[in-house]
Specification:
2 domains
Length: 143
Amino acid sequence: MKIKQLSIFLENKKGRLWKALNTLAEGNINIRALSIADTSDFGILRLIVPEPEKAKKLLEENNFVVKTKDVVAIELLDHPGGLSDVLKILNDSDINLEYLYAFVHEKKDKAIVLLRTDNLDQLIGVLNEGGTSLVPPEEVYDL
């Protein structure tokens, strides 16, 4: 149930984000989800793409530093409190998230949230016990 995520390190200078995304576009790689976090010196662009290894290789060939990490995807109801309910399960189980990001898709009443923690197997177990719907990698890649 783990999904490969690319983390691309970008210098905070004009054109770097465009260059990374244009590199993927020229490689015919579509982006399913993304998040960007920045500091004064650099940013981290996190991406979910259908072919993570191909994308990683392409970006590295174009002088980007890329790391691959596993994340977990869950599907939840897209209404006020939907995410809060899941976070309560994690809080009650003493699970600390490193980060999360979300997106909506064609199921108008549902959202997908990508979660990262230092122990994904524990996270998966707690989510399953709590009745949270996990989304398999193939489904996320094919959105």
